[in-house]
Amino acid sequence: MSEPLDRPATIEDVARLAGVSIATVSRALRSPEKVAESTRKKVTAAIARTGYTANAMAQNLRMQRSKMVLVLASSIADPNFAGILTGLEKAANDRGYGVLIGNTEGTTGLEQNYLRFLSTGMADGLVLLTGHIPVAGEPQTPLTTLPPIVATERPVSNTEVSYVGVDDVAASKMATEYLISLGHRRITYISGGRADIRSDLRHSGYRQGLKESPESLRDWRVEGDGTSESGRAAVERLFIKDDLPSAFFCFNDNTAVGVISALQLRGYRVPGDFSVLGFDDIPFASNFSPALTTIRQPRQHIGEKAMNILLDRLANKPPDTQNHLLHGDLIVRESCSGVARKRS
């Protein structure tokens, strides 16, 4: 006999009543053959008593598959998100799947909510744009309790999860070499923050570009956080120190926009006095003044490839745990030129 609650039953209710963990309940529902018979009976009894089978889980279990994929992003306002989502949805639709979007806003609480959503079986797979395995009250959720995963936009520190993204190192090396080819020898890299692995990867590419120059060039990193405000702040710090580069290579286009704005407010011309190069080629980059020279990410291609890897896994093909790094293109516009002569 069920014990109705004054709200819809959750997997936590089932776990509490059965005296097992949430992960065990999820495993009993997804892969019952991996759970001891006595435990399965406890979970089944708890489900019946709480009425948990009245929700979408019952239908999904009968269908075996929901034919949906959950896309988990730190922020859907990220300028790269729309392009990647377009690719994800195209590949999913082509293969008969739908896409659900989870916006975590970078908070653990929202990640936990989406994990509970996953535990109901309403999504067969997970695409991560957050840069880490979702957190569920522990430092890291065991992969065995989660559906198949692929990461994109930001790599995760787990070798069992396939990653699809732009080749940050090669693209940043190309950007740095381009600035050097214009005659720049004092090039500063404005980072995206120490917590963002992409920032370190792009710094690595920048350093490689410097090292391959026939001259000894300074590795000049200035900390930012990927926002336009951090670009403006970086410029102000350099002016306070009276230690200025001739060119700025920025972690992303938002940072580059901040750098250009700060230079223009001080009366300098870009590229007349300084050159500025960004990364991402967000839609605004070509409409800014001056139009931004930048690295273009193949966002739609990234999304399509990531989704196809995930759906291949759901079709029981061997797991793909490789990193798939796609080529970024240098888009030359108006914000870079040869080294300017010093003002008298």
SSE layout and pairing:
Layout (H helix, E strand, L loop, with lengths): L10 H8 L3 H9 L6 H14 L5 H8 L4 E6 L7 H14 L3 E6 L4 H12 L5 E4 L20 E4 L9 E5 L1 H14 L5 E4 L6 H15 L8 E3 L5 H14 L5 E4 L2 H13 L9 E3 L16 E3 L2 H16 L8 E4 L2 E3 L13
Helix pairs in contact: 1-2, 1-3, 5-11, 7-8, 9-10
The tally of structural domains comes to: 3
Beta content: 5-15%
Unreliable stretches covering 5 or more consecutive residues: 54-63
- Order of H and E elements: HHHHEHEHEEEHEHEHEHEEHEE
Strand order of the largest sheet: 2-1-3-4-5-11
Helix content: 25-40%
Overall geometric form: elongated
Write down the overall mean pLDDT: 88
Give the N-to-C terminal Cα separation.
89 Å
Radius of gyration: 24 Å
Put the structure in a nutshell.
The protein has eleven helices and twelve strands. The chain has helices at residues 11-18, 22-30, 37-50, 56-63, 81-94, 108-119, 168-181, 197-211, 228-241, 253-265, 299-314, and strands at residues 68-73, 98-103, 125-128, 149-152, 162-166, 187-190, 220-222, 247-250, 275-277, 294-296, 323-326, 329-331.
